[in-house]
Amino acid sequence: MISTRGRYALRVMIDLAEHADDGYIPMKEVAQRQGISLKYLERIMPALSKNNLVEGVHGKGGGYRLSRKPEDYTAGEILRLVEGSLAPVACLECGAGHNARMDVDFSASDAAQTAESGAVVVAEDGASTLHMLGATNKYGWYQGGYDETDVWYGTVIDFAEAEEREISAPDSLPMNGRVGNLQVDDAQIVWSWSGMLTDTPALVVTDFDRNQTGAVSFPQGWYLAGWAPIAADEQYLYAKGGMVSDDPARLDERRLLRLDPAADTIETVTTWDEYGGQLLGTWDGKLLLTRRVPGADCPEPVYAYYSVDNFNDLKPYLTETLCALDPATGSEIVLAEGAVYTFGPLRKLAGDALWWVDGTRLLRQPLGTNEVQTVAELPQEMTLDSVYDEDVFLLARQDERQVLYVYHLADGTLAESPLRCALKYEDNYVPIVCQAAPGMYLIIEGETAVTKTLTGTDGRQYNISSPVTQYALATRSAILDPSVPTTPVPPGIWRK
Fold first, then answer.
1. Residue ranges of domains in the chain
2. Across all residues in the chain, what is the average pLDDT?
3. Separation CA 205–CA 185 (nearest Å)
4. Which CATH architecture has domain 4-97?
5. In this model, does residue 34 exceed pLDDT 70?
């Protein structure tokens, strides 16, 4: 059986072959000619590009072209790439087996969708699975900012070019000096503005050339959870929001919203009660969210404007649950529970598992099971910072400062990193920003002062000096060995 994914990959390759003399072909042209969703094509192309079947150029005038002559390809080669094995039974495939390292099976599915990377997973029936938008995609790391003229913009650190570039915000977003949120996957940029008090939230979806592809118009008096994560599938976005209360005796409504940017519609999937919770991630076609559940001995809460007056007093009486919600049916199951702030700060969601440190043990619990697996015994007490495809980053206290450790999943080695903070907030500093590729990371190397000449309201020019973060791309080897060079990322001249 050949899936929709396989058929579409063949049609894309045939289309590129037919237009091989036209240079780089934008995917929207292929989508129009073939009658295929552009979003879905953009989820197929990374696999073709990564395996050198096509070459891609990002940005204006970019697109894809064949990397070889058309006659050098076979249908079998393309199908094996996007479909995997063509054997009718998995056990007939040569080399099938299990990773027997330690007591953990680190399968490809576990690493395919990490909370940090926001990677997109595509189902075999042609529909994309639920996934989290993130700060990174295959192109780079994205963040929002604003300049002295109160203009909101976005920046991207381009992993391929090792440079920082500006992305101007869509014209339809508010320009009021307060930065919004920027989240991405490999197909779209979601620009969102939370709204504050009397401000109305805004959400606009663009492609990577800043062409608007959708938007959601929120009613007056609504809010969108500012920096909270957003989930996505082929059609919808899922985000926390609701209605703002201006009554000190009544809390804001907390809803999990299903947003359709193409149709500009809003639906409520579920609600949170007064104890709150968050949208955390996705798993097995379901939305992962937390809820705070009071015990039988929990005292009556006393509420203040926008907050729980006695929340710290209430914390000992609350349990935090991690739940899996089916957005299609509304059914919900509890996967795990712990104290308040257990999930996210202490237990990290990565792939299909929760990860955390208990004293000197690095632990992992596959979602949907009660099995807690010991990944590694640590030489001292540590805390978990982040989990990526190949590495786990841990922190330990030494001589009143934090020290970074790298645990390499492939061989089980643990090594101390010499990276130290060059910034003023050293005590809470972690130099790893995000994963640029497996084994490659964007890091902070320090700060430098940049001077800009600005014109004041009086017409005079002023020289303003501001700190600018210095970024670099570093391999795991460079993180562990200061003699291994990193790749500096030149800062954009538009930055403050």
1. 4-97, 119-272
2. 80
3. 11
4. Orthogonal Bundle (1.10)
5. yes
More confident residue, 126 or 372: 372
In this structure, what is the dihedral angle of CA atoms 172, 175, 178, 183, given to the nearest 10 degrees?
30
Token output for 161: 């070019």
> Which neighbouring-strand residues pair with 267?
258
Tokens encoding 123: 């189902």
Cβ atoms of 233 and 212 within 8 Å: the answer is no
The angle at the Cα of 89, spanning 87 to 90, to the nearest 5 degrees, equals 85
| C-alpha–C-alpha distance, residues 97 and 352, integer Å | 20
Confidence of residue 216 (pLDDT cuts 50, 70, 90): very high
Helix (H, G, I), strand (E, B) or coil at 9: helix
Q: How far apart are CA 396 and CA 406, in angstroms?
A: 11
> In sequence order, what DSSP letters do the residues of 198-230 get, joined into one string?
TPPPEEEEE-TTS-EEEEEEPPTTEEE-TT---
Fold designation for 119-272: Lipocalin (2.40.128)
Please write the tens of the pLDDT for every residue from 265-320: 999 999 998 788 999 999 999 999 999 988 777 776 654 434 555 667 778 888 99
Please state, in angstroms and rounded to a whole number, the distance separating the CA atoms of residues 440 and 477: 9
CA distance 472 to 162: 8
Question: pLDDT by residue (tens digit) across 69-125?
Answer: 888 888 878 877 776 544 333 333 333 332 222 333 333 333 333 333 333 333 333
Whole-angstrom distance, CA of residue 495 vs CA of residue 483: 30
Q: Among 421, 424, 416, 418, which Cα is nearest to 396's?
A: 416
